[in-house]
């Protein structure tokens, strides 16, 4: 008989015995356990996204009849020794539960198959300890004296409109794991290992009693497990079309991001006087993100001067010099985890030079050409193609290409891509690069549907040492990025209210700095 003892699911507190001064005397323990007011849980009403999360779970359930699905939230990740990065639950977990910035590390959602071909959803998490244990004062990872109040099982159940149990009961799920059970592998390595071992035990028992060649899983621990990869893919593809709650959140994220850009522009006179002005720009925007949302959706890019030619410049330690452009790529992430992703390229002194304006308006022309393609039934890759046609034509006109624009656009060439190597669009939502595990025929070759949200973000980047471009172009980098919603009749630019044309941007800066 195989050992079916389930492994522990509650991690031990990190050891600090070499420096801990936490009292352990009987007198202290007795005193600290007494004299507390009675604690009454106030049960919140179900949050706005709860019914939408339930509908998403139902869609996933329909794809996996009879199979147990395990979707962990993830755990804290160390930044340095025993200090951690701020916790962010896995996006698939948040999508299916509605639990966002207030979610608890180590939680896990289980969809248990029912006889009626559906699933019962249960959320397991480590509930708060009572004052009759030492956890609340002695465990710096989860103790309320250390990190603040934590919710009860009843509160989370009411908030998310979900069946909720303590994490200790997850051992029953592990004991029931069979070879058909699937886990979102990337979310929590600890749970993944435990599920792998449980499937191994189940498969070994089958081998002892039968051939077991029909088992979908290898008996090797940590094998690739293609069925698990299918779950990851399906969870990604479920998010390609946004529901009404998600679309509303995207609008709010864009609005908060617009306020962040306003803040940055108002502060440009100060930023342009500091040796690390890019850091000031980043800090101003990030303050807005923390004020109006959860945090930034990704590391803010504040790339001034030649740094604007570096696609993901996040070091942000350069000057913001009058006469240069500053490329700001930033987005506010809400408490629901939905994020905007917007880029504007601004003249630091408020006015574009003739060459800067030429490059900027060319990028805007490419963005507008891409936007004109967007409608239900169009193919996602054609958005990029429309932008590239403009980039190829203009760089050929400026004498930068060794071939004609038509020749550059041939698949075997692509000379114009020297000045824009990235793609024009990516899906956007609860991840800044949302739906990233979707199949190519659902993503790049996918057909646009109402409810899809993605970016349009062409650019031109003329490196300071690029001898193929005239000297006056060198060191100029421009990107314009907007967040686009596919509607039943076409498309809506969710970020259209943020000035886009060169003339509008100049007026925006002038008004903000009066």
Distance between the termini: 80 Å
What can be said about the biggest beta sheet?
5 strands, mixed
By secondary-structure content and strand pairing, the structural class works out as alpha+beta
- Overall residue-averaged pLDDT value: 93
Strand content bin: 5-15%
Tally of individual helices: 15
Shape: globular
Number of strands: 17
Radius of gyration: 27 Å
Uncertain segments are: 1-6
Lateral strand order in the biggest sheet: 6-5-4-1-7
Descriptive overview:
There is one protein chain. The protein is an alpha+beta fold and 514 residues long. Helix content is 35%, strand content 13%. It has 15 helices and 17 strands. The strands form six sheets. A five-stranded mixed sheet has the order 6-5-4-1-7, with helices on both faces. A hairpin with a 5-residue loop joins β4 and β5. α10 (244-271) packs antiparallel against α11 and α12 runs antiparallel to α13. The termini are far apart. The model is unreliable at 1-6 (pLDDT under 50).
